[in-house]
Amino acid sequence: MYMGSLPVPSTDAGRAGLTALLDQPERALIAVDFDGTLAPIVADPEQARPHPDAVPALARLAGRVAVVAVITGRPAEVAVRLGGFAGHPELAGLTVLGAYGAERWDAATGELRTPPPHEGVAAARAELPALVTGTGAFIEDKGGALAVHTRRAPDPVGAFAALRDPLAALAARHRLALEPGRLVLELRPPGMDKGAALTALARESGVGSVLYAGDDLGDLAAFEAVAELRDTGVAGLRVCSGSTEVQELAAATDITVNGPEGVAHLLATLADHLRAP
Ligand SMILES: O=P(O)(O)OC[C@H]1O[C@H](O[C@H]2O[C@H](CO)[C@@H](O)[C@H](O)[C@H]2O)[C@H](O)[C@@H](O)[C@@H]1O
């Protein structure tokens, strides 16, 4: 069902979230995930780029809402580079929270904040090649974390399943978290997730409504955070960037759109609705 050209959220709380965003955009936070939400999924992580309509839509929204943010598992500076977010005058207020919220880049200052290295990542880095050899998986070394990708393996799902337990054991040995995603298993420092990152940003900005869009298991914490923010009086709208790969998000969200193309369309339609009078 559509409200004008905007989809109608499937829940009362989601409808309240959308209404709050449309009524008081100057008090709204719009936060989006990068891979699978802004950027279509591709086989080589280095080749991921936002959907062509996504960044222009974010830029239009940035002029109308209180805060626009990208919250991603990528290192913040990688998301900034792949997204082309630096030096974009209309995105001068953009915040990028990388490494599941452990890193922060603010367009306004250009400042990048990263945590000190976790010794477990260095230890896992040394052991990982032996575990991965022969599976067809490849390692994306993100500096502060390690991602093992099976998308390019001959049997991506089989390789993912075969690696899950050994990587969980490796993570446990080195006090790391194992973060499963879309044909990827990430070893990363514990203690931060996208939910904590989103809540902190919402509190810091004092917003009255939050929209969060994501596509993967790592986004569930952010969707839960939106639900918790609602209990504290902050209206919320949870948008699923739908895919055939991840089925678990529909129950945790208020709107499902068709992947990054659908997200870009939704953001652009929101920007149309919020056009300055
Ligand atoms: O939080 P996100 O912005 O969604 O980042 C999560 C991970 O995404 C990337 O991997 C995913 O996208 C790749 C490029 O499309 C794809 O090849 C891979 O199969 C996906 O899992 C990225 O490479 C990771 O570092 C991110 O943590």
From TrEMBL:
List the catalytic activities from the record: alpha,alpha-trehalose 6-phosphate + H2O = alpha,alpha-trehalose + phosphate
Protein family membership: Belongs to the trehalose phosphatase family.
Q: Give a yes or no for keyword Ribosomal protein in this entry.
A: no
The record's section on InterPro entries has:
HAD-like_sf, HAD_sf, OTSB-like, Trehalose_PPase
- A Gene Ontology molecular-function term? trehalose-phosphatase activity
- What name goes with this protein? Trehalose 6-phosphate phosphatase
Cite the entry's keywords alphabetically: Hydrolase, Magnesium, Metal-binding
According to its UniProt entry, the function of this protein is described as: Removes the phosphate from trehalose 6-phosphate to produce free trehalose.
Protein's gene: otsB
Q: Report if keyword Magnesium is assigned.
A: yes
Cofactor(s), names only, from the UniProt record: Mg(2+)
EC number(s) given by UniProt: 3.1.3.12
| Enzyme kind, highest EC tier | hydrolase
Looking up Pfam families in the UniProt record yields: Trehalose_PPase (PF02358)
List the NCBIfam families hit by this protein, alphabetically.
Answer: T6PP (TIGR00685)
Which pathway does this polypeptide act in? Answer: Glycan biosynthesis; trehalose biosynthesis
